[in-house]
Design a protein that fits this description.
Number of strands: 8
Distance between the termini: 9 Å
Number of domains: 1
CATH architecture: Alpha-Beta Barrel
Helix content: 40-55%
Order of helices and strands: EHEHEHEHHEHEHHEHEH
């Protein structure tokens, strides 16, 4: 029996509602903790630590103005941010944190691809070291080309993870971005050893079960990969009253 847990990407205020609906966890934005503002962070942290539903995952790792590639990288600010992130994630008890942050990692015009990849590799290495012993895994999220020009496929993300080869650095597969980039579902099987987290959406980036995405094939590939673990819906909601409930029922059914 394969073990999956289902979560929803939302703000912490939704935790109670998502718990009542039967979700296993909530996935929140790391930037919503306001790590760089001591006063706001101190006020926000208890909401996550005392959440009625475990905050097992976080996304949106970096604020958009904190660049991780290009000529504007502020090493000291970056180092401070990663240190604070590791500590906070450990305190909350998170298992996975998603490194999407398309704006932060976008390669600026005129900046070399090679240098960007070097900077990104150093970043992953730094995060891996900082996360060692915290119980938190960083998962690299491939994003479609409209959102960033660095890492647009699962296989590219895996190439970076392999270079680091650190137990705290793994990869996420996002059905929406895979569909946008027309990435083969075979990549889930080919890169099975590196998969640590899954994001789901459906046509138009709406909630799972409302569109035409080939869910049966996706689930078959994921099962063939032997993946077990967290699966989060990351999507736009049209009807708050029914979308989350219906999507959870759909996800449980299709992954059963």
């Amino acid at each position: 029996m394969t073990m999956y847990t289902f979560g929803w990407c939302s703000e912490i205020q939704q935790a109670e509602k998502l718990k009542d609906l039967g979700f296993d966890y909530i996935e929140c934005a790391l930037v919503s903790l306001n790590l760089e503002n001591e006063t706001e962070f101190a006020a926000r942290l208890p909401l996550f630590m005392n959440s009625p539903l475990p905050v097992s995952a976080f996304n949106i790792f970096f604020p958009g103005d904190l660049k991780v590639v290009g000529p504007e990288v502020d090493e000291e600010r970056l180092q401070r941010y990663i240190y604070k992130a590791a500590k906070a994630l450990n305190q909350v008890g998170a298992k996975n944190v998603v490194l999407g942050s398309g704006r932060s990692r976008n390669i600026p015009d005129g900046w070399e691809q090679n240098r960007s990849e070097e900077q990104f590799t150093q970043l992953l290495s730094r995060i891996g070291e900082e996360f060692a012993g915290t119980g938190v895994t960083l998962v690299i999220e491939p994003l479609n080309k409209k959102e960033t020009n660095l890492i647009n496929s699962v296989s590219e993300a895996v190439r970076f993870a392999k270079q680091i080869n650190h137990p705290s650095v793994r990869v996420l597969a996002d059905f929406y971005h895979m569909d946008e980039e027309k990435e083969s579902l075979q990549t889930l099987i080919d890169n099975q050893a590196w998969l640590q987290h899954i994001h789901l959406a459906d046509t138009g980036r709406f909630s799972p079960g409302t569109g035409q995405y080939p869910y049966e094939q996706f689930v078959a590939a994921l099962k063939a990969s032997g993946y077990e673990g967290m699966i989060s819906a990351e999507c736009t909601i049209r009807d708050p009253e029914t979308d989350q409930r219906d999507s959870l029922a759909f996800m449980k059914r299709v992954f059963a």
